[in-house]
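Reviewers of the previous submission asked for a worked example of the structure-prediction workflow described in the proposal, so we include one complete record here. The input consisted solely of the amino acid sequence. No template or homolog information was supplied to the procedure at any stage.
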Amino acid sequence: MTTELIPIEIDDTPDAIRATLKETHPAALETAEAILKRSPRRIFIIGNGTSLYTSMAASYTARQLVADPNDALVFAVPAGDFRYFTPAIQPNDVIIGMSASGEFRDVLSVFERLRGQCLLVGITHVPGSSLARLADHILLSGGGPSRVPVMTKTYASTLTALHLLLLETFHASQAYFDDLNAVADHCAIALTRAKQIIPDLVPAVSKFEHAFYFGAGNAYAAALEGALKMKEMAILHAEGSETWEMASGPATVVSDKSLCVALYTGESTDSSTADTAKHARQWGARVLEVGPTAPTGDWHLPVEASIVPSFSSLVLIPPLALLAYRTARARGFNPDQPAWRERYTSQGMTHIIGE
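From that input alone, the workflow returned the following structure tokens.
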């Protein structure tokens, strides 16, 4: 019997978060000190796909921590967009490049071109990668090597490393670090609950033609990543939207052939997400609510809300990744050996981890 690798890596996620918190914190502190010496006005975080959604998720941490008009502004930007439409770079700017493999071409191109012009920080899962060679400072996420082509534990570990860096850069209180440390336990609990619930969901979920994920704030970043997991694993059309954007374009095509996934973080904006979810149910869709509550009363994957809302995606994504994997198997696909790998590499995207 062939070993299923992706579920193993999903199960490894809590330990990958813990390992990153322990192993990466010294580098995060040292790098934050280097950033602060420059008194930056702009910090650009660049990545592609999962690494972009990681950048977006962590940017909400910076928004929460900015307390002074003179604090640096943090921007999450697609790596390709930044490569070809680079803003005028100042010596005190900081560019943080996200690449789990350390080999994504657009991030590397930016770093090669801008070496010596500003501070370059890399966050990767692979020691000795090209990104590690080009960066002025490098943060290595923990949890051991990845053997799968779809980012699962590496999503969580690289995001944890980025959160650590931003917490140190913006002088976060100990309460932030304490809550980030609690995330691994919340993640483990969410996965245990998901394993009990997902087998009952998969027969129905695997038959949908469309999936629409939505949420507000950090849950929006999680919605993008959750939809990507469903596309890459289950080869099912899936979109991620911000709660209020879901009310326009996606709302026009929601029907009984759709799964709608509403993501909650425990913030006041959850009420707007719940309103959109209730409308989707009225339009005939089945609604899966992921978070501490399920106001629509349809399907529910319980996930405990973080005290710091910007950490929520670390807990929301692993159950969604497991759902995507089990849905893929029910649809006859093997995400450990995806057919789309050739489509990625044919475009020069040769950085996919896992062989």
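The first strand starts at residue 42 and ends at 47. We consider this example representative of the routine output the project will generate in years two and three.
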